[in-house]
From TrEMBL:
InterPro entries: VerF-like, XnlR_reg_dom, Znf_C2H2_sf, Znf_C2H2_type. One of its GO terms (biological process) is DNA-templated transcription. GO terms for molecular function: DNA-binding transcription factor activity, RNA polymerase II-specific; RNA polymerase II cis-regulatory region sequence-specific DNA binding; zinc ion binding. Residues 77-87 have a biased composition (Polar residues). Pfam families: Fungal_trans, zf-C2H2. Residues 4-31, 32-59 form the C2H2-type domain. It is found in: Nucleus. The keyword Transcription regulation applies. Keywords: Membrane, Metal-binding, Nucleus, Repeat, Transcription, Transcription regulation, Transmembrane, Transmembrane helix, Zinc, Zinc-finger. This is C2H2-type domain-containing protein.
Length: 848
């Protein structure tokens, strides 16, 4: 049999009929004409089905010759028409018994013909399906030849060898009938190149030129001068409206938030950033609870229940287009005894401000009112307070309603990501999402933490896209913003709203710092492009009146603070003017922590190497080699601050130094986080690491974390990262003692009490050097600081006067000490990791 080759796409065919049909797909030739309506077709079988539509009788009869089939112009053989008409009206005729039998016979005959045709398969099963679909009626315009060529090339991807064709015949193609394939492979009508394509030729009025596109009112104009064309005044509005229907318009976004955020929040007519404007005032007399400090009353409780206590129904009410500007006060409340009463909400809010808010103080208390606060933020604050309350009813309520709250905040974040929210609404959504992520860390449920990972990513990513972490790339914040406000009361409120946003940004920075560490992921904020405006003095932010605020501002407490850039090799740690608050130092330390975490996940994550001290790897990287010197700058410039301020700052610094000298992922695996096989390999790595100076410095920092957490006061609020750092310190010191060779400690070393004060300025970068291996080299001059001698040469460690030798029993005692302290570390869920330390104190017996 002679193979025929297509001159356009080089495909080959055995049958002349297939070759001509394929050739007509390129040439768009339509040789078959209907004698009734003179419509032309490229295939005879399509014409046959079309002719049935003309000859369909009004009665039940379906038999009769087709008289409108002409002879093909090119001599191609004529195909028998199908029994069932495929007309455009979808009419199904009624058949009697004789016709039914005829229909069954004809259907089986057609099916046999399709199966017999399958015996002559082309070289691909996909080619067969494409060929089969080509026999079905099509209603779209002709396809461009270029597209046809691309389709022909694409269909060759699934060529099947000749030896495998029988397998496809028997297992794939035989059970499939033409009607099923027609259902799935029938192209969509009125489409040219894809779904939703626009056929501009089909609308005579579409376009900016041409006689058919001019309306009757425009036809009286004899000509269009150049001025009219340039101005666009002669273009009818209908043309723009048609373009708008087919072309998705951008959302009504507010642009990049940082470009005008200070002006937007300062000159808003609301007293607080987190307040909403009530369209309809509250009805009825005020029902404030006696003794309520923050304005919680029954109406406030009903508002929260209406939105969050009714599940999806309440959420849909608030998010419907008709209610976008309607106050939640206008929604009809429904009482529910399962929702906390107003008294419980008031107690929860009071606990929130007493135990949680001092850690991240960004809400301006003098202008805060629960009645006017946006519902999502207020509800998240109450949930945090309820988990801190710790009763059976409040804890169960939080656990049951956490998922719905997370869903609500996630939907609000989605609106912020596309820019459909205003500046104040976007900032409030950031604050609510921040609260929910902290709530997940308080509940301690693994399911909640897993669900929150995407919310965390979206929150920090959207905030970074709005430029919140690039202060120098947005609107400049200066005194002119406040000096133009003559009224002192309005100026105070404007300043408080600006300060609220600054503090929220630092809160997001802290969130990315500790959340990425806890999740063992790289931080989302880009360190190299981070700039931060430092917060003002805490006393200014807590001033209860405008007069007190003005008095403090005139007494050497500036209303504006400098902008700092991410510390690096060329940018040193900033000098901070006294007095410095805890929250200010948290922001600076968080910036360095982000750079350290980014370097670790970029260089060492899942690829630890000897000597298993990250500082050794960082010394060879241009962006990370500054990290040891940054820690030295922090200890030199902030030495007094780290001793005077909250223990959270000191723990944060010690943890960064420990992360420089110990690869924490090895310790996680050694504890059993990844199972038994990686644990044994990790213990061998720790045994090699334990003989390096970096390991001995890591032990000193781990012990100082324990000392700092033990000496904290009852009024000191513990941050999440402090509790998590305590757990990491337990792994580092405990596994070091367990794996270190005993001979290393006894060979001419220096004895040191782990809980004594250490002069870190004298220690300097000892242990941070790039040569981590223990090696006999030129001896260094002795140092007066015992810690330096211990890092260099090793020695015996003492804990409360008791010597610590290597082995199981000392390691077990250390793990139990840390576990007891971790268990009482506060409300954060990380305290549950004390169970891991208790388990390890027993499991180590089997490992030894």
């Amino acid at each position: 049999m002679v193979l025929r080759k297509c001159t356009i796409c080089d495909r080959r065919f055995k049958k002349t009929e297939h070759f001509k049909r394929h050739e007509r797909s390129h040439t768009k030739e339509k040789p078959y004409e209907c004698n009734v309506c003179h419509k032309r077709f490229s295939r005879s079988d399509v014409l046959s089905r079309h002719a049935k539509g003309h000859n369909q009788p009004a009665t039940n009869a379906v038999n009769g010759p087709v008289s409108c089939l002409p002879k093909p112009a090119n001599g191609a053989p004529t195909h028998q028409p199908s029994v069932i008409s495929n007309d455009s009206h979808g009419h199904v005729p009624v058949m009697n018994a004789e016709n039914a039998r005829s229909f069954q016979h004809s259907s089986s005959t057609a099916r046999d013909m399709s199966l017999s045709a399958a015996a002559d398969l082309p070289s691909s099963s996909l080619d067969f399906l494409a060929n089969l679909s080509a026999h079905q009626p099509r209603s779209e315009p002709a396809v461009n030849p270029i597209i046809a060529n691309e389709q022909a090339g694409y269909l060759d991807w699934n060529n099947v060898p000749v030896t495998d064709q029988q397998y496809y015949r028997e297992t794939v193609l035989e059970p499939i009938h033409n009607d099923i394939l027609q259902f799935w492979l029938e192209p969509q009508a009125n489409s040219v190149s894809g779904h939703g394509s626009l056929d501009v030729r089909g609308e005579s009025s579409f376009g900016f030129s041409g006689g058919g596109a001019i309306s009757s009112s425009e036809q009286s104009v004899p000509s269009l001068d150049n001025t009219g064309l340039r101005s666009g005044g002669n273009i009818p509005n209908e043309r723009f409206a048609r373009v708008q229907r087919y072309w998705l318009a951008p959302s009504n976004n507010t642009g990049r938030l940082m470009n005008s955020v200070w002006h937007d929040v300062a000159y808003s007519d609301l007293d607080s950033v987190f307040a909403f404007r009530s369209v309809h005032p509250s009805s009825g007399p005020s029902t404030y609870l006696r003794g309520s400090r923050y304005g919680v009353d029954e109406e406030c409780r009903q508002r929260l229940y209406t939105i969050f206590g009714q599940g999806r129904h309440g959420h849909s009410l608030m998010r419907s287009p008709a209610n976008t500007a309607v106050s939640p006060f206008t929604l009809q409340p429904r009482n529910n005894p399962d929702f906390p009463p107003a008294e419980v909400l008031d107690m929860a809010l009071d606990l929130f401000f007493r135990d949680f808010h001092p850690l991240v103080p960004f809400i301006h208390l003098p202008t805060f009112s629960a009645k006017d606060t946006r519902p999502a933020l207020l509800y998240a604050m109450c949930l945090i307070g309820m988990i801190l309350l710790g009763t059976k009813g409040t804890v169960n309520f939080v656990l049951q309603n956490f998922s719905s709250m997370l869903e609500y905040v996630t939907a609000d974040l989605a609106k912020c990501s596309v820019g459909v929210e205003g500046p104040l609404s976007t900032i409030s959504t950031f604050a609510a999402a921040f609260m929910v992520l902290n709530l997940a860390a308080l509940t301690g449920e693994n399911e909640h933490l897993e669900k929150c990972q995407m919310t965390y990513v979206n929150l920090i990513s959207v905030a970074q896209r709005h430029g919140l972490f690039s202060a120098t790339e947005g609107q400049v914040l200066n005194k002119n913003l406040f000096d133009t406000i003559p009224d002192i009361e309005a100026r105070w409120k404007a300043w408080s709203k600006v300060e609220t946003v600054k503090r929220l940004i630092i809160g997001l920075l802290l969130l990315d710092s500790w959340y990425s560490s806890f999740m063992s992921t790289s931080p989302i904020i880009a360190p190299d492009s981070t700039q931060l405006i430092l917060p003002c003095n805490e006393a200014l932010f807590q001033a209860t009146t405008s007069a007190r605020w003005m008095q403090l501002s005139n007494s050497n407490k500036p209303l504006l603070m400098p902008t700092i850039t991410m510390p690096s090799e060329n940018v040193g740690v900033p000098n901070l003017d006294n007095p410095v608050d805890d929250f200010c130092i948290y922001g600076v330390l968080a910036m360095v922590q982000l750079r350290l975490s980014e370097a670790y996940h970029r260089l060492l994550s899942n690829r630890a190497s000897y000597p298993f001290a990250p500082c050794n790897t960082y010394a060879m990287d241009g962006r990370a080699r500054c990290l040891p010197s940054l820690q030295l700058q922090l200890s030199s410039k902030y030495c007094d601050l780290l001793d005077r301020l909250s223990p959270n700052a000191a723990v944060m610094w010690h943890n960064m130094c420990m992360m420089l000298t110990a690869d924490i992922q090895i310790f996680d695996m050694a504890a059993g986080r990844s199972g038994p096989v990686p644990a044994r390999k990790a213990l061998d790595d720790i045994a090699a690491w334990s003989q390096t100076p970096a390991a001995r410095r890591a032990c000193l920092h781990a012990a100082q974390i324990y000392r700092t957490m033990t000496n904290r006061k009852a009024v000191d609020h513990t941050m999440f990262h402090s509790v998590f750092s305590l757990f990491s310190a337990a792994l580092v010191l405990g596994l070091y003692v367990f794996m270190v060779p005993t001979s290393t400690e006894l060979q001419g070393g220096t004895s040191i009490e782990l809980l004594d004060d250490i002069h870190w300025q004298k220690v300097g970068t000892e242990g941070f050097t790039s040569f981590m291996e223990a090696q006999e080299s030129q001896p260094l001059p002795p140092s007066e600081e015992p810690a330096v001698e211990f890092i260099r040469h090793g020695g015996t460690m003492y804990l409360r006067g008791v010597p610590i030798r290597g082995g199981y029993q000392p390691a077990r005692r250390i793990l139990l000490d840390y576990a007891g302290l971790l268990k009482d570390a506060g409300k954060w869920s990380v305290h549950k990791f004390s169970h891991v330390l208790y388990i390890m104190s027993d499991v180590l017996m089997e490992v030894e």
